[in-house]
Amino acid sequence: MANTKLLQDTQASMEKALQHLQDLLRGVRTGRASSTLVDSIRVDYYGTPTPINQLASVSIPEARQIVIKPFDASIMTELGRAIQKSDLGLTPQNDGKIMRLTLPPLSGEQRTKYAAKVKEMCEEARVAMRNSRRDQNKHADVEHKAGKLTEDEHKKTLDKIQETLKDYEKKVDRVQEHKIAEIMEV
Description:
Layout: H1 4-26, E1 42-45, E2 48-51, H2 52-55, E3 56-62, E4 65-70, H3 76-85, E5 93-94, E6 99-102, H4 108-145, H5 151-184
Antiparallel strand pairs: 1-2, 3-4, 4-6, 5-6
């Protein structure tokens, strides 16, 4: 019988890596507006970098527009600066009460650039998962040497860890394909 604690730890760490990847990918621009595009932007609010979604309500009134309505109108200048510094490449339009971000259509070159960024992020997630496999394999080796696992149990544990890695790599592949298709959609 394979060591269930090691297998649970393996699955938990790979799930965490997959979740982190999905969170990162929400911030990658596609052809459509999404409130998650501005989630990672931090605004200097009285000396504290604060996420936009804690300072304002974010809505999507149209397919290519994001509207940000701050709870405190005095942060409009800082909000505009933070958006301009971000890698979104958007110029905010401020009317004193709300800020509008209009997303221009992505050019073919931009789509290719974003697709390459997605591939890079997915590869980083795969590397994190492989590191998790390596760590769990080391734990299995230690338990085997300590006599907690028999030779057969050790082999089964290593095989199950490898199988878990392959399953999660397939999930990363699906996430990558979906996001790239979303970016390339015209």
